[in-house]
Write a structure and sequence with these properties.
The structure is a single chain. The chain is mainly beta. The chain contains 1 helix and 10 strands; from the N terminus they run ββββαββββββ. The strands form 3 sheets. It has a 5-stranded antiparallel β-sheet with strand order 1-3-8-5-6, with no helix packed on it. A 3-stranded antiparallel β-sheet has the order 7-4-10, with no helix packed on it. The protein is globular, with a radius of gyration of 16 Å.
Length: 165
Amino acid sequence: MAQGIKDYFGNPVPATAPDRCFHQFTGAPYRPAVITSYPTLGNSHAYRMADGDTSTAWSSAAAGIAFPGTINVDFRQPTSIGTVTLHTAFATGQGIKRFDVQTWNGSAWVPRAAGQQLAWSGYTSTVEQRTITLPQRVTTERPRPTVRDAHLQWGNFAVYEIQAA
């Protein structure tokens, strides 16, 4: 551990192989790191998009949203994926409508699924999920949805969980 260096939550930061974000995951269960190019609303930190809990959410800021923008998921180890699943509530008010999926091949972002349209049905607190299947499985450390459009009824959009499997 790096002597005296702590993450946002007070966890020690290891001297070797630290997480790339502001939170060091030091115990089970392992969770990927998540960062986004979008500004964040209040304290709805990006790590909530991959915390394994569909009752917590990340939300973009309520103003100044411009498309496209990215959500980078970092597994920190090679992982085989064939699907990307998004979870959200109040989907017709805050859900992602259109996105692309790219993966990192070690030196560049590779397009995997472009122009994916999501049709949400709810405008309630019930969490919905939509899954996009990639044309073929790929092994990557980093999948990256690029958000092309979202419902912005309240000026922002929200993601409760993002999973790549």
